[in-house]
Amino acid sequence: MTDQLVAAADASLDATWWRQACVYQIYPRSFADSNSDGLGDIAGVTSRIDYLAKLGVDAIWLSPFYPSALADGGYDVADYRNVHPQLGTLDDFDVMVEAAHGAGIKVIVDIVPNHTSDLHEWFVEALASEPGSAARNRYIFRDGTGPDGAEPPSDWVSHFGGSAWTRVPDGQWYLHLFARAQPDLNWDNREVRDDFLYTLRFWSDRGVDGFRVDVAHALAKDLSEPLRSSTSLDANLPLDGSDPLYDRDEVHEIFAEWRQVFNSYDPPRTAVAEAWAPTERRALYARPTELGQAFNFDLVKVDFDADEFRAVITTCLAEAELTGASSTWVLSNHDIVRHTTRFGLPKGTDLQDWLMTHGTSPKVDAEAGLRRARAASLLMLALPGSAYLYQGEELGLLEVADLPGEALQDPIWERTGNERKGRDGCRVPLPWSHTGESFGFGEGSAWLPQPEQFAASSVLAQDGKAGSTLELYREALRLRRQLQSAEELTWVGGESPEVVHFVRPGGWHCVTNFGSEPVALPEGVVRLSSAPLQGATIPAETTVWLTDWPSV
Length: 552
Ligand code: NOJ
Hints:
Elements: H1 3-15, E1 22-26, H2 42-47, H3 49-55, E2 59-62, H4 90-102, E3 106-111, H5 121-128, E4 141-142, E5 165-167, E6 173-175, H6 190-205, E7 210-213, H7 251-262, E8 270-273, H8 279-282, E9 292-294, H9 306-323, E10 328-330, H10 339-342, H11 351-356, H12 366-381, E11 386-390, H13 411-415, H14 454-457, H15 459-462, H16 469-483, E12 490-491, E13 499-504, E14 508-513, E15 519-520, E16 525-529, E17 537-538, E18 542-547
Helix pairs in contact: 6-7, 12-16
Bound molecules: 1-deoxynojirimycin.
């Protein structure tokens, strides 16, 4: 091949890097604290790039690190084009990107377009301006209902509990689908649209490789009067896009514009939608003319069960095929109870109720949870498409369910009148070492208390230890790169219904025994297993990777 052809081949490889990438989600405040102020920061991420490279991830996705009052862990953005002073500076950000790229790791940032912080200069200006003014028109302000306008404009409710409307001193109300401190933007306003295009360019120009788009399905709203009721948050949405708040057809015009920005870069910037749309409509966000990928969260809703896994995999691969996107797989993230804990609870446990018992009832079977989580992770990592890992899952961390009320920071706790604890239990800062006040997260204490059990799960305690969860993930990611092939799988049947077995092109087999009895090990060369094999059998609740002989 001539040099030119080689270069072209490299560029095209690069343009599709995301299709089967392993993306590691960093929740910056809880990852690594370089200046020991209790909050993780950007320099902390830079200091751990070697760790991420050794883990073998292709990309990192950073949850918001922008200036924010942290009313919703940073998803209340006060300035989209800067770094929170406690987390660092734009220079620190540039250094981090350079270090990541130097280690062959791409960088994805979180974009939060549905709402700003109430500290954003636009909202401050809106509050200081008259009803009907241009400043108010960047948000969704309405007069109230009832005799003196003292009732909210509609019955819409916030995801965090309570009405989605808050009244301001002059009597008008503003919409916030999340916390009061997160006013919703008006996406019918051209200025709002242009400003986000500018933000996408701002980060792309700084070398960012892609974007995770928060609440992508809520931007377009039908605000015509009278305001209609919405179909209970985003569950059970209609299939025709007729809900006034979620998954409306007009939202796709916005992302088509974004795609033009992404494609003006070489390689094009990537994007993944957080879109809680019905499965049938989720693929629309992933069209190549829009965001390119959409999260499927189906694996976060299943029990550790062969039929449920098989069904989800079948549906999601068919969905990805519809648009030519690649599928995404998620077992844990910053919004849900960690999967090691989920799989250690009896099937069907209501996780919010369970959290309210401080994790005591029912009791979590930590050993079974870890065994199943390791098996599920290995299965996920063998699937065609991209796998999104959440920081700490490679350590097998459990949810911290006994955080005391006074430590909780998730707005859900306050907005539900202390009836739901929210999501802090999966956001507890990472343990890097088994000693130190915050287990090596920083030198002082961390912003959320860490449990004693974090010592045994720490990076240092697992590093180099045969059979540890950290070493399992490292080996899985190394092999995954080596064995990765076309985005296809073929089901292999004929075994017990408790067994999920598929093979990828090139002869990479993944076999999970979901049952409680050992099953026969199929033929092939064993490359990795989530638990030690017993002779020629796969133990209960174990995944094994094999390759055909001669080995690939
Ligand atoms: C989804 C994010 O993942 C979550 O953490 C946040 O609270 C909401 N969007 C609102 O931005």
